[in-house]
């Protein structure tokens, strides 16, 4: 059986690394791993016996070189998994406008750039699959993560539009995980960053990787863990009550967690990345 060619961004650590390992273990896919960090990316690719390409997907010319490399070597890209992304903890006034720009560029615009570069060839080949790793924060706002949350809202909206435009040929999957135990937290205890209702739902990268592989088989919008799906359903049914209860929950949490205020403004959190 011919293996499907999968281009995976943000592949050098965290969720991306877990997805890469899972892809190889299925024996159905051949991953082309993409990230910025040569050392980690090269080491992982050699271990998994797959290909890699070091690039910064926020740079147009580098994206062109990546796509040219992939198609010249493999002839096609069957599946694109957009996982690269990052964020910062901090309130709206504590987060610099430069941080907002950088997060939007990496988490949203870079994904659009890569999809625009690959989509014509996918359509010409008769179709393909695109899996975008979003976040629960792209479905409901999260205090002190406004830049990250906004970028994921944008990614989800774009993904849905893409499905409506090209759904007859391109299958689009959107995975919206809750908090994941990765370098995203920079060693911080999630209990000091989120109310217990959210912190208790902490996922490991392997769980997210497993769900990503499932989305390849059946692309759709999926929220994990399931308990957070019911929370979002409540938001849709009773939005005003949902927002009032969330406000009360976060206000109480911030009052109780005095240590939260000691979290450095601009602390990098990295889901990615590469």
Automatic annotation (TrEMBL):
<protein>
    <submittedName>
        <fullName>Oxidoreductase</fullName>
    </submittedName>
</protein>
<dbReference type="GO" id="GO:0016491">
    <property type="term" value="F:oxidoreductase activity"/>
</dbReference>
<dbReference type="Pfam" id="PF00106">
    <property type="entry name" value="adh_short"/>
</dbReference>
<dbReference type="InterPro" id="IPR002347">
    <property type="entry name" value="SDR_fam"/>
</dbReference>
<keyword id="KW-0521">NADP</keyword>
<comment type="similarity">
    <text>Belongs to the short-chain dehydrogenases/reductases (SDR) family.</text>
</comment>
<dbReference type="InterPro" id="IPR020904">
    <property type="entry name" value="Sc_DH/Rdtase_CS"/>
</dbReference>
<dbReference type="InterPro" id="IPR036291">
    <property type="entry name" value="NAD(P)-bd_dom_sf"/>
</dbReference>
<keyword id="KW-0560">Oxidoreductase</keyword>
């Amino acid at each position: 059986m011919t293996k499907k060619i999968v281009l995976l961004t943000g592949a050098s650590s965290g969720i991306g690394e877990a997805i890469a390992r899972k892809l190889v273990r299925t024996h159905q896919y051949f991953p082309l791993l993409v990230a910025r960090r040569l050392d980690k990316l090269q080491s992982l690719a050699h271990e998994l016996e797959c290909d890699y390409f070091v690039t910064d997907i926020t740079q147009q010319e580098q994206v062109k070189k990546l796509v040219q490399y992939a198609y010249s070597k493999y002839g096609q890209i069957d599946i694109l998994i957009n996982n690269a992304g990052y964020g910062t903890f901090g309130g709206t006034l504590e987060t610099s406008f430069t941080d907002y720009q950088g997060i939007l560029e990496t988490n949203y615009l870079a994904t659009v750039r890569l999809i625009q570069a690959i989509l014509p060839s996918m359509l010409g080949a008769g179709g393909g699959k695109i899996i975008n790793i979003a976040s629960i924060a792209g479905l409901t706002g999260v205090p002190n993560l406004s830049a990250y949350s906004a970028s994921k809202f944008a990614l989800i909206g774009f993904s849905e539009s893409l499905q409506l435009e090209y759904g007859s040929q391109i299958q689009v999957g959107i995975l919206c995980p809750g908090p994941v135990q990765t370098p995203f937290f920079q060693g911080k205890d999630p209990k000091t960053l989120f109310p217990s209702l959210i912190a208790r739902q902490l996922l490991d990268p392997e769980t997210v990787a497993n769900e990503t592989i499932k989305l390849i088989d059946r692309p759709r919008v999926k929220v994990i863990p399931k308990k957070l799906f019911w929370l979002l359903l409540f938001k849709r049914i009773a939005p005003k009550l949902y927002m009032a209860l969330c406000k009360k929950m976060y206000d109480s949490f911030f009052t109780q967690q005095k240590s939260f205020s000691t979290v450095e403004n601009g602390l990098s959190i990295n889901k990615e990345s590469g």
